[in-house]
Amino acid sequence: MENAIQTTVLGGGSFGTAMAQVLAENGHPVRLWMRSAEQAEAIRHTRINHQYFPELELDSLVEPTTDMGGAIEQAELVFVALPSKVFRDVIRNAAGHFRDQQMVVSLTKGIERDGFRLMSQVLKEELPGTRVGVLSGPNLAGELVQHEITASVIASEDRELRERVQQALGNAYFRIYANLDVYGVELGGALKNIYAVVSGLADARGMGENTKSMLITRSLAEMSRFAVSMGANPMTFLGLAGVGDLIVTCSSSLSRNYRVGYAVGQGSTLDEAVTELGQVAEGVRTLELVHEKAIELDVYMPLVRGLYQILYRGASITDVVGALMNATQNSDVEFILPRQGEGSAI
Ligand SMILES: NC(=O)C1=CN([C@@H]2O[C@H](COP(=O)(O)OP(=O)(O)OC[C@H]3O[C@@H](n4cnc5c(N)ncnc54)[C@H](OP(=O)(O)O)[C@@H]3O)[C@@H](O)[C@H]2O)C=CC1
Ligand SMILES: O=C(CO)COP(=O)(O)O
């Protein structure tokens, strides 16, 4: 195709595969890097990624590979779809293959334990000289490959990168908006996973629609409050990468975080729920990190605290719900009201 962009996706899991398919359907050759030679070989022969998308026939422009060097060196645009837990190690091992000014976009929605770093920060540290962006939004992989009309946000300080990503990914079913608030867009994607777990729990317990609405709305207030305390722009949380992603992950059983919450709500232990899922649910780890950070920064996060008590301290769901409904700190104030003469806060 004229104007085809050479692309690479690192990570042959659920989202990496979905994004590779979108790129290929748009006419861009894409190397899909995965660590398993067996998996790459099977995809090459069957055109199917059996473990993650057994019903999806991959476009002929998707080339599965385990050759990390070749995949990176030949790409103009590299997308990274790896769990946050392994992100830095994989990138560090591959660092020698990247070149100056190459465009690298994180698709990962998680936080690194050491130093509470987001993936774009990891990329900047490990790959100095490259241009970095993050893509985030309400993008369930399973819906994207079904061509459900979807939108996402490319956030980067680099205008050329934003435009290139819009060009590479945009099509009749996928619309890519641009944003300059890299930190807010990325933090939104990571934080909403926690509340998807809460939402799954609530659904498993048969809680009502009033409850669900309350939970989602208060989740938005809580994640925005945290983000503002970390220096993000609260307006970003009213967009696709904030409330947009929160709504979809809190509402869909396609969300792995929701499914973990649902399983725990039905009586599984956290370990059982995560093992049964067999894919990454970033919210479980993010919860621990945000819980710790909220204490450090003294940010009021009752839902994070409640979920932490349930998942990590063995508290009963009934007790936690009771405590939340009887909470006194800030409980009767919907928004933290500004003092006279100050701007508004959330
Ligand atoms: N799925 C979705 O709908 C969306 C996911 N995301 C985000 O994308 C990121 C990746 O998620 P997703 O693809 O869904 O996760 P999956 O669990 O589906 O896949 C994870 C992928 O990472 C690979 N991997 C794990 N550990 C390593 C390692 N040490 N070295 C190399 N590869 C490794 C896995 O390989 P193997 O199969 O060999 O274990 C697999 O290919 C997450 O941060 C998620 O939040 C963002 C938007 C949507
Ligand atoms: O981020 C997602 C949708 O935007 C996917 O959520 P899960 O990781 O919970 O499946």
UniProtKB/TrEMBL annotation:
Residue ranges of every copy of the Glycerol-3-phosphate dehydrogenase NAD-dependent N-terminal domain listed in the record: 8-160
Source species, domain of life: Bacteria
Catalytic residue list: K192
Residues binding sn-glycerol 3-phosphate, per UniProt: K109, G137, K192, D245, S255, R256, N257
Biological process terms in GO annotation: carbohydrate metabolic process; glycerol-3-phosphate biosynthetic process; glycerol-3-phosphate catabolic process; glycerophospholipid biosynthetic process
Gene Ontology molecular function: glycerol-3-phosphate dehydrogenase [NAD(P)+] activity; NAD binding
Pathway field: Membrane lipid metabolism; glycerophospholipid metabolism
Reactions the enzyme catalyzes: sn-glycerol 3-phosphate + NADP(+) = dihydroxyacetone phosphate + NADPH + H(+); sn-glycerol 3-phosphate + NAD(+) = dihydroxyacetone phosphate + NADH + H(+)
Binding site for NAD(+): G11, G12, G13, S14, F15, G16, A141, R256
One Pfam family here: NAD_Gly3P_dh_C
Main location: cytoplasm
Keywords linked to the UniProt accession: Cytoplasm, Lipid biosynthesis, Lipid metabolism, NAD, NADP, Nucleotide-binding, Oxidoreductase, Phospholipid biosynthesis, Phospholipid metabolism
Domain Glycerol-3-phosphate dehydrogenase NAD-dependent C-terminal: 181-321
GO cellular component: cytosol
Presence of the UniProt keyword NAD in the record: yes
Protein localization: Cytoplasm
Function: Catalyzes the reduction of the glycolytic intermediate dihydroxyacetone phosphate (DHAP) to sn-glycerol 3-phosphate (G3P), the key precursor for phospholipid synthesis.
Family per similarity comment: Belongs to the NAD-dependent glycerol-3-phosphate dehydrogenase family.
PANTHER family: GLYCEROL-3-PHOSPHATE DEHYDROGENASE, GLYCEROL-3-PHOSPHATE DEHYDROGENASE [NAD(+)] 2, CHLOROPLASTIC
Name recorded for this polypeptide: Glycerol-3-phosphate dehydrogenase [NAD(P)+]
Protein species of origin: Vreelandella halophila
